[in-house]
Every structure is written in structure tokens, then in C-alpha cells.
Amino acid sequence: MRLRAILPDLWEIVKPLRGQLLASVGLIIIARCASLVLPASTKFLIDDIIGKQRHDMLTPLVSAVVAATLVQAACSFTVTQILSKAAQRVIADMRRKIQMHIGRLSVAYFDRNKTGELVSRIMYDVEGLRNLVGTGLVEFFGGILTAILALAILFNTSAVLTLLALAIVVGISVGMFFGFNRMRPIFKERGKIYSEVTGRLQESLGGVRVIKGYHAEHREESVFSGGVDRLLANILKSLTGVSAVSQSAVVLLGLIGSLVMWIGTREILAGHLTLGQFVTFTAFLAFLVAPIFGVVSIGSQLTEALAGLERTKEVLSELREDHDPSRTHVMPPINGRVEFRHVDFAYEEGKPVLQDFSFLAEPGTVTALVGSSGSGKSTTIGLIAAFAKPQNGHVLVDNVDIATVTLASYREQLGVVLQETFLFDGTIRENVAFSRPEANEEQIMAAIRIARVDDYAEKFPDKYDTVVGERGVRLSGGQKQRVAIARAILADPRILILDEATSSLDSESEAYIQAGLSHLMKGRTTFVIAHRLSTIRRADQILVVESGRIVESGNHDTLLAAGGRYAELYRKQYDLEKNLFLAEGEGDTIDETEPEPAPSPYGRAG
Questions:
Q1: Most confident among 107-121, 252-266, 333-347 (mean pLDDT)
Q2: Which tops the pLDDT comparison, 129 or 38?
Q3: Which of 103, 126, 193, 508 is most buried, judged by most C-beta within 10 A?
Q4: pLDDT tens, residue by residue, 122-170
Q5: Helices (H) and strands (E) in the chain — how many of each?
Q6: What is the mean predicted confidence (pLDDT) over 283-310?
Q7: What is the distance between the alpha carbons of residues 546 and 313, in angstroms, rounded to a whole number?
Q8: Beta strand 392-397 with 400-401: parallel, antiparallel or unpaired?
Q9: Which distant-in-sequence residues (6+ apart) come within 8 Å of 568 by Cβ?
Q10: Three-state SS for 335?
Q11: Which CATH number covers residue 431?
Q12: Is pLDDT of 579 > 50?
């Protein structure tokens, strides 16, 4: 990506700061003009005060230099305060913007990208904006301005020496521009490597129990070390480039100094220059070449910043799932009729997951999906939750194609308990209230009691203010699952999705929770992926899914009587549960009675 393509994005970033930038430029102009007073005074000091013994000029000259220095310091300090703080605000705004954008991307985007890489995009890539918006770039422009002013004075002093020096400076500048332009891909690659290493590190820290359980510490050390080596190689490569550019500048600037010394001395001996003029010329020549060293010092930073901006632009160019032009309708309050009409879906072209998938779930009914692993059950649930859109066919809710409704209006009427329980690093109460932040304490506690969270939470010293840790690590699997179920109960949804919602529970805990779930399911359209017999038996309809197709459908009794695939799966699960039950020493039969539903704690729909 060329610099020209990034400039519009850079302008959008700095446009809100144009007032501060203009004020800073004005202050820089004043500061740079003040900085010229000292070198300009050398001619008068040497030729007039010392050469002509004009002692009366010494005090005014020194006073002017002191005053100019104070003005320069005050202006520079003000510019630093304005731009440094502005740059940090821009970085904070960009982080918020990228996080908000990423959070609204499709589930498929998160499936393709590692969490650590996305964190790096949000936190690391925008850091370079500090160099684009902050004092570095403005100070560089101030150096350019000073160079222009110095150039005018140099031409007035000696046109020959100035043209010679200018030719060399222009040559150096062009060479450095192309040098840093070629290094930009190196910095862009560094950002990519950094994201990958950060992503893997985050994964290994999150999966520390698995790593230790398989004694794989040395493998993770090797993987991380390899990533660090790649990052080091990239950094060393960029350092070589920066050093080559900077040393080339040093050599060429030394050449300027040598030529000026040679020609300047001959001009003095020929009487064309005074000693004061030569010293002044040399001092102003430093202002002309100073931006060269400025480029060397901030050139790599600016190049890295532009590379980060390119990577940021790549993320922001991803279409958000709520920007689908076909999603224009607001979903009205849901009654709960869900229909799949000849749905085809594939994550990858040529690899179908669902094929001609059709069924109808009436309002208030429970639909259970059973089948072998990879048959398409979770994909069906994902389509109901609008995590993806079918390639062919329609998913209808109350005869409305959910591919045409706004996601916010639809999903706020859903409740989801997934197989992989996710809790935030907060308290038990905060995690339950996540689905409905406006809920009062009575409603939160009602959901907690239905899900039997109180059975264990009351035993903690901090009770419901107990911090669960990252991903709920301080709770057992069953405890986490109960919090997730309480969260769904509090949401009081019109469509409820339970993906192995009781898989982490023991038999006793499940029996208690089934009572709460029975009330929760009542009057709501519920979709269940489960292997537990108690959940399967209670379903109004059971869909047997194999290889992306519905091979059987009906209720428990009719499917069992048919003696087909469902009967086979059921008998296997029945035998498994019976054996587990006997192993626990509970008896020689399975009690198939179900607990009575608990009374409703809500005044909301349901």
C-alpha cells in the first residue's frame, strides 16, 4: 500500500485535531524563528563586537539571545503538551473504534483469526499514531521550516556554497525516502509476527492446565522461542536498514562539511567572506542539514506507524455483520414459530454441512437435535442464532426471513446456553446479570435460585460477590454451567437455545436444574442439543441429523417404536446412563420421573 493510499485515512484521524495542529504549527514557527537568533548573532559577535571593539553591543546582543531562548523553550513546551496529549486521545479513540468494529464482525471472522492477534491489532498497531500525530512529526516539519529560513540566509551569505550543500542534501533526502519506503514491508511483517507470537502466548497461558497435564511445557517453550526468533530476525533486519541509511547520511554530511571547509577557507583568503560570515554560514548550515538527522531518528518510527495504520485499515475494511444491506427490517416481538425451508449451508465451498434441511417448530415447543458428532446440529443452532446465513433456502421466524432483520432486534429476544461455558472475570452476580443489566436484585436472585447457583455460592465467603476468575477458572465445570443457565433464565427469551446446557452437571444437579428449565421452556420455542435422556424425552419433536440431513423426526415414543437411527442412539445412551447410575450406587433402575416446574418469578412474557 502506497503512502498516497493511506493519506485519506490519516486525514480522517487528524481532522478533529486540526485546530490544535494549526496552533502547534504557529508555535513551532515562533520557536524556530527564535532558534535562529543565536546563530545569527555570531556574525555580529565576531565581526562587530570583537573585530571592531563595539562593546556597547554585547549586552543587547546577549539579552536578545536569552529572550529568544526563553521564547523557544516556552513555545516548544506548549507544543509538546498539546500534541502529546492529543496523540494519546487519538490512540484511545482508535482503540475504542477498532474494538467496537471487531466486536460487530461475524462469527466466521473470529473463527478465522486468533484472539491474541485481534488483541494486538487493538492495542499494538495503533501505538504508532503517537508518532504521526504527536510532537515527532510536527517537530520534523518545524525542522523543515527552519531549513527553509536558513536556506534564504545561506544564499544571501554565499550562493556558491549554498548550491553545493543543497545539491548534496537533496540527494541524501531522496535516497532516504526510498530507503525507508523499502523498509515499510519489514515493519508490516513485524506487526504480523508480533500478533502471531502474542496470540500463541495468550493461548498457552489460557491452556496452562492442558499443557501441564500433558507435560508439554518444553514444546510450548520451543514454539514461543521460534516466534521470538522470527521477531528478532525482523528487528535485526530493520536495524540494519536504519543503520545503513543513517551512516550514509553521516558520510554525505561529512562530505558537505569537508567541501564547505575547503571552499569557505579559499573564499576568506580571497577576501570574498569575512570570518564572521563563514562562522554564521557554518551555523546555519547545521539548520539546513538537521532535518536529515531528524528523518533518521523518526523515520523508522514513522515507517512503523504507517505499517500499523495499514494493518488497522485492513481490519476496519472488514464488513460488520450488521452492515448487511439486506437487513433492513426490525424484528417485532417474537411469537416463536421457527421454520427451516430447504436450507443449504457450507463453511467452505464444495463441503456442504446442511443439505435441503427443512423442519417446523411451533411456538412454545421443544425441539431436540440428536445425531453423531459433526452431523450439523451445532450449525443448525448457529443459523437459528443468525451467526451465519444459509447459501440457499430460508430460516423463518414467525414467517419472517431472519436474513432480512436487524441483528439487534432479533438477538435481544434470544437466550443462549452453549456447550462451552464462558464467564467473564467478574463476580457471580455480574455474570448472571450480563444478559439483562437492568434487572433488579430480586429478578437476579430468582434466576440464581432456579439454576441452583445458591447451592454453592452461599458457601463462599463473598457469596454472590465471589470473583470467578478468567473464563470462570475458580469454579468447577458444573458450577460454571449453572451460572450460564441462570444468565439465560434472567434474559427471559422468546427463543431459547440450549447446546449441551447440562453436559457438565452431575445427575443430582441436573435433576434440580431441569425443574428450572422446565419452567423456562414453557411458552418459549426451545432448541436443545443434548444426550441426556431426560432432556430428549421431554421434547415435542426430535430431529435425527446425519451428514447434514434430517433422517428421522417425531417425538420420543414414535421414533423409539420405529426402531430406526434414533432408537439405536437412544439405547446406547440409555445403557451408558444406566451403567453410570449403577456405578454411583444409586440402585438398579433409572427413575424416569421428572420434577415439577418451579413457580414463575417473572412478570415478563413467558
A1: 333-347
A2: 38
A3: 126
A4: 777 777 676 666 656 666 676 677 777 777 777 877 777 778 777 777 7
A5: 22, 10
A6: 67
A7: 42
A8: antiparallel
A9: none
A10: coil
A11: 3.40.50.300
A12: yes
CATH code of 236's domain? 1.20.1560.10
| Domain final residue, candidates 286, 319, 352 | 319
Q: In 317-440, where does DSSP find H-type helix? A: 377-384, 407-411, 428-433
Strands, sheet with 495-499, edge to edge from the N-terminal-most edge strand: 414-417, 495-499, 525-529, 366-370, 541-546, 549-554
Show the cell assigned to 11. 486525514
Residues 289 and 148 in one domain: yes
What domain count does the chain have?
2
Which amino acid would we find at residue 240? T
* Long-range contacts of 158-167, Cβ-Cβ distance < 8 Å, separation of 24 or more: 158/264, 158/267, 158/272, 158/273, 158/277, 158/281, 160/263, 160/267, 161/260, 161/263, 161/264, 161/267, 161/281, 164/256, 164/259, 164/260, 164/263, 165/256, 165/259, 165/260, 165/285, 165/288, 165/289, 166/288
Domain of residue 474: give its range. 423-492
Cβ–Cβ < 8 Å for 400, 412: no
**How far is the C-alpha of 417 from the C-alpha of 490, rounded, in Å?**
12
Q: Which of 516, 515, 541, 519 has the alpha carbon at shortest distance from 528?
A: 541
Within-domain flag for 589: no
Find the Cα–Cα–Cα–Cα dihedral 314, 315, 319, 322, rounded to 10°: -170
Tens-digit pLDDT profile for residues 226-253: 888 888 888 887 777 777 776 776 777 6
All cell numbers assigned to 183 = 523498509
The cell 411458552 sits on which residue?
A: 523
Q: Judge whether 603 lies within some domain.
A: no
Last residue of a domain, one of 287, 319, 351: 319
Asked if residues 102 and 118 have their Cβ atoms less than 8 Å apart, the reply is yes
User: Per the domain annotation, does 579 fall within a domain?
Assistant: no
Residue located via cell numbers 515493519: 187
pLDDT of residue 590: 40
User: What's the whole-model pTM score?
Assistant: 0.63
